[in-house]
Write a structure and sequence with these properties.
single chain, 123 residues, alpha/beta, two-stranded antiparallel ribbon, 4 helices, Serine hydrolase domain-containing protein, LovG, FSH-like_dom
Length: 123
Amino acid sequence: MATKLRILCLHGYTQNPTIFRARTGALRKATKNLAEMVFIPGPYPVVLPTADTVEERERLQSLQTEPNEETAQLSWFRVTDDASGRRLTGLQSTLDVIRTALVEQVEYNGFWLRPISTNPRLS
């Protein structure tokens, strides 16, 4: 049997490896004899928006759960707003996480990136 392809999978904004793995179930099943997909977590927890009203604050708090491996909302960067506008920061930590995955594990044949363009905060 030929060696399977190894694909490094990077989840999208507010996802994590568990969520991305679940969302790719049909693809993983269809390619199970051809490829192994490896999912790694982004380095940054997503900071949830703040609420302007008591009602909105209570609604947001009701949606929050204690983050764990299955529910953590992660990102590959940080979004900051300041006088100069909206900026994405944290590239070095992201590169460090990816570099570690590439160095510590065996060779990869490709990457699969969940697009960040689905995030309305970045539009």
